[in-house]
Design a protein that fits this description.
- With about 300 residues, the protein is mainly β.
- Among the domains are: about 70 residues, no CATH class; about 45 residues, no CATH class; about 100 residues, Agglutinin, subunit A (Orthogonal Prism).
- It contains 1 helix and 23 strands.
- The strands form 8 sheets. The protein has a 4-stranded antiparallel beta sheet, with no helix packed on it.
- A hairpin with a 5-residue loop joins strand 18 and strand 19.
- It is rod-shaped and about 105 Å long.
- About 35% of the residues are buried.
């Protein structure tokens, strides 16, 4: 009777193991990537320990199996840190697994130093493989902290910006074409802004609305469209050198027209003063470092001046 009882117990255990094993197989995924041993079992504790934490012992259908640990599970065998989901303990699955991230990245399950050609935004980079002082500058529009973050060398209002053109920052210390001049706007007159092209210039199609102004490149002279309708050239902190004498007319803008005429207008377009320089190609107005206000043609020949030189 004792052997029969033992046999019944074995059968009962086998049935229980089969039921328990079915649950383990579903939860642990033994059917996917697991392995089977020949030993019988009633629970996973009856099964031998796996050589890696990335393969978990399970009991299924009365037999010992192994189930793959979930990707990212912590492990420590073989010098690894995390399970890869395929039963291996590897150094990393993602950059965040590396101890010096973001200065290191995960490549082929190994932590390696970040580079400017790894196709990832890491380290001090402000974009993928660009900016941050070590990599090439980023294209226009990228968020930036300083000029070297940008391919143009110009970081304005926190974004990489075009450079070298009229009223744009300088490209690496120079502007695209004459008569544009690159200056470092460190004078208090400039408000301490960055390098800029076009100081003291007003080009065809540009205008000064009420309150707008242009400083000379040295910051000593200022042309401003005042709220009283008068366009005035000042020697900063000293005196007014010239004006359009349009106070009280309702004028609210000074415009260099495309034909080269420099005019003071009101909202309706009525002119109250002009330089009389129509017919010029490529004209520009210069607020010069010598205190003179001059209208030039595209060849830098003067056609009108305030005759307020030289200070």
């Amino acid at each position: 009777m004792e052997p029969a009882g033992t046999g019944a117990g074995a059968q009962g255990g086998s049935a229980a193991s089969a039921a328990g094993g079915g649950g383990a197989e579903t939860a642990g995924g033994a059917a996917e990537g697991g392995s089977t041993t020949n030993g019988g079992c009633a629970s996973a504790t009856d099964c031998p320990a796996s050589e890696t934490l990335c393969r978990l012992p399970v009991c299924a259908d009365g037999a010992c199996n192994t189930s793959l640990a979930v990707e990212g599970t912590a492990c420590d065998d073989g010098g690894g840190r995390v399970c890869d989901g395929a039963g291996h303990c590897v150094e990393c699955q993602a950059g965040q697994d590396c101890p010096d991230y973001p200065n290191t990245i995960c490549s082929n399950h190994q932590c390696v130093g970040a580079t400017c050609t790894d196709g990832q935004k890491n380290g001090a980079e402000i974009g993928v493989d660009c900016g941050g002082g070590l990599c090439p500058g980023c294209a226009d529009g990228f968020v930036c902290n300083q000029g070297p973050d940008c391919a143009s060398g110009a970081c304005l209002s926190g974004h990489c910006a075009p450079c070298g053109g009229a009223d744009q920052p300088c490209c690496q210390g120079s502007c695209d074409a004459a008569p544009l001049t690159c200056v470092q706007n460190t004078s208090t007159a400039w408000g301490g802004t960055d390098h800029e092209c076009n100081c003291g210039l007003l080009r065809a199609g540009q205008e000064l609305l009420t309150g707008d102004q242009r400083y000379s490149c040295d910051g000593r002279f200022l042309l401003v469209m005042q709220g009283d309708g008068n366009l005035v050239l000042y020697w900063v902190g000293q005196l007014a050198l010239w004006s359009s004498n349009t106070t009280g007319t309702g004028a609210n803008r000074a415009v260099l027209l495309d034909d080269g005429n420099f005019v003071v207008l009101d909202t309706s377009g009525t002119p109250y003063w002009s330089s009389g320089t129509s017919g010029l190609t490529g004209a520009f107005v210069g607020v010069q470092n010598d205190g003179n206000l001059v209208v030039y043609d595209g060849g830098s020949t003067p056609y009108w001046a305030s005759n307020t030189c030289c200070y």
